[in-house]
Amino acid sequence: MTESKRLVWHEVAPQGAKAFFGVHHYVTTGTTLPEEMIHLVFLRVSQINGCAHCIDLHTRDLLKTMPADKVTLLPVWAEVPHLFPDQYRAALAWAEEVTRVSETHASDAAYAAAAAAFAPKDLVDLTIAVAAMNAFNRLGAPFRLPVKAQP
Fold first, then answer.
1. Which of 114, 139, 150, 148 is nearest to 51 (CA)?
2. What is the spatial distance between Cα 138 and Cα 83, in angstroms, rounded to a whole number?
3. Residue 133's closest CA among 34, 53, 29?
4. DSSP assignment, residue 100?
5. Are 48 and 100 in contact (CB under 8 A)?
6. What range(s) does the Carboxymuconolactone decarboxylase-like domain occupy (predicted)?
C-alpha cells in the first residue's frame, strides 16, 4: 500500500498553528498542573485517538523523566493503580471521559470525581489540556505527521 503525501498543516496555515501552539504553551507553562501529569494526559489522549506522531513524541518525552514501566502501562493505568498517584489517576480518568465525550457525555459521576480531585481552575486547565491534545490529534493523524521511530 502506497501512502499519499499529505499536507504539513502547520506550514500551510502558520497563523492557525501559532494559535494552537499558544494554547499548548499556556497549558505547559501557565498552569499549576504538574508537567509530568500534563504529558501523561497528552500521551493517553493520543493513544485513544490513534495519532502516531503524538504517541511517538509524548512517549519519548515521558521516557526522559519517567520509568519505562509506567509509560508502557499507561493504556491500562486503572489496572495498576500503585504506579500512579491518586490525582494522576483522576486526571487520566477525566481525560478519557472528555476525549470520549460523544460516548460518555461527560457524565455527572465523572465530573464529580474530577471536581473532587482538582481545584476549580486546575480542573478547567486540565480540560483545556485534554481539549488541546484532542485538537492536535485531529491534525496530526489526518495529515500523517511523521514519527521518529524507525524499523
1. 139
2. 29
3. 53
4. T
5. yes
6. 14-97
* 136's grid cell: 492536535
Give the rounded distance of the alpha carbon of 126 from its chain centre: 10
Would the CA dihedral through 38, 43, 47, 50 be positive or negative?
positive
Which residue type, as a one-letter code, is found at position 105?
H
What backbone torsions phi and psi does residue 98 show, to the nearest 5 degrees?
Answer: -75, -40
Q: What is the pLDDT of residues 87-139, one digit of tens each?
A: 999 999 999 999 999 999 999 999 999 999 999 999 999 999 999 999 999 99
Name the H helices within the chain: 9-12, 14-29, 35-49, 52-63, 68-72, 86-99, 101-104, 108-117, 120-140
Phi, then psi, of 37 in degrees rounded to 5: -60, -45
Report the distance separating Cα 114 and Cα 10, nearest Å. 33
**Other residues' Cβ atoms within 10 Å of the Cβ of residue 37:** 21
pTM exceeds cut of 0.90 = yes
| Mean pLDDT of the 13-41 span | 97
